[in-house]
Design a protein that fits this description.
The complex is a heterodimer. Chain A is mainly beta. Chain A is built from no helices and eleven strands. Classes of the chains: A mainly beta, B mainly beta.
Chain lengths: 118, 111
């Protein structure tokens, strides 16, 4: 149980292109989803937290107009990297949790998306 | 959010038991301790979670002393496929609160 699917797993595109990454919870309803970014040989860095039906909360230093997050349903969140440039190349990972009161459920992660901007 | 401290790396041999200790001196009353495993180019995988004393599942054990200021992940009889980065996280995941990843421990298992 608790499977999170992330798509695409790998994308290469030209500078200036916008790229959308999908994160789906396949067998549970995720009230909260998280988006992380990871550079080679570094730890995961939290970018934003999204709750279904409301605006995402971005971490300090993350441009909300650059990284658009939509959490339209309890099973789907999307991250759109707008007008991507080479410095946006990274490994993007999503996670999902139940996010309920009195429930201490661990986050479940997708397998990540390798984004390469040429 | 409570900060955690782990060894940067550890080396072991196949068949040995590996213990990775994590310090979290500022853990809060409602915080749980969760361990994740990450292989290159994959998302982290949940290993085990606990609040106090000892928790065991099919892949690992988690030992938490009474003061909860540290915890130890125990991996019995490791194999080459256990080579990965292991992250200790502390937080209250009620209401889907966020987690902050530390540097993690690189475990290298040799034959």
């Amino acid at each position: 149980g608790a499977v999170v699917s992330q798509h695409p797993s790998w994308v290469i595109c030209k500078s200036g292109t916008s790229v959308k990454i999908e994160c789906r919870s396949l067998d549970f309803q995720a009230t909260t989803m998280f988006w992380y970014r990871q550079f080679p040989k570094q730890s995961l860095m939290l970018m934003a937290t999204s709750n279904e039906g409301s605006k995402a909360t971005y971490e300090q230093g993350v441009e909300k107009d650059k990284f658009l997050i939509n959490h339209a349903s309890l099973t789907l969140s999307t991250l759109t990297v707008t007008s991507a440039h080479p410095e946006d190349s990274s490994f993007y990972i999503c996670s999902a949790s139940f996010g309920q009161a009195h429930v201490n459920q661990p986050q479940h992660f997708g397998d990540g998306t390798r984004l390469s901007i040429l | 959010l409570a900060k955690t401290t782990q060894p940067i790396s550890m080396d072991s041999y196949e068949g040995q038991e590996v213990n990775i200790t994590c310090s979290h001196n500022n853990i809060a009353t409602n915080d749980y301790i969760t361990w994740y495993q990450q292989f290159p180019s994959q998302g982290p995988r949940f290993i085990i979670q606990g609040y106090k004393t000892k928790v065991t599942n099919e892949v690992a054990s988690l030992f938490i002393p009474a003061d909860r200021k540290s915890s130890t992940l125990s991996l019995p009889r490791v194999s080459l496929s256990d080579t990965a980065v292991y992250y200790c996280l502390v937080g209250d995941m009620e209401y889907g609160n966020k987690l902050v990843f530390g540097a993690g421990t690189i475990l290298r298992v040799k034959s």
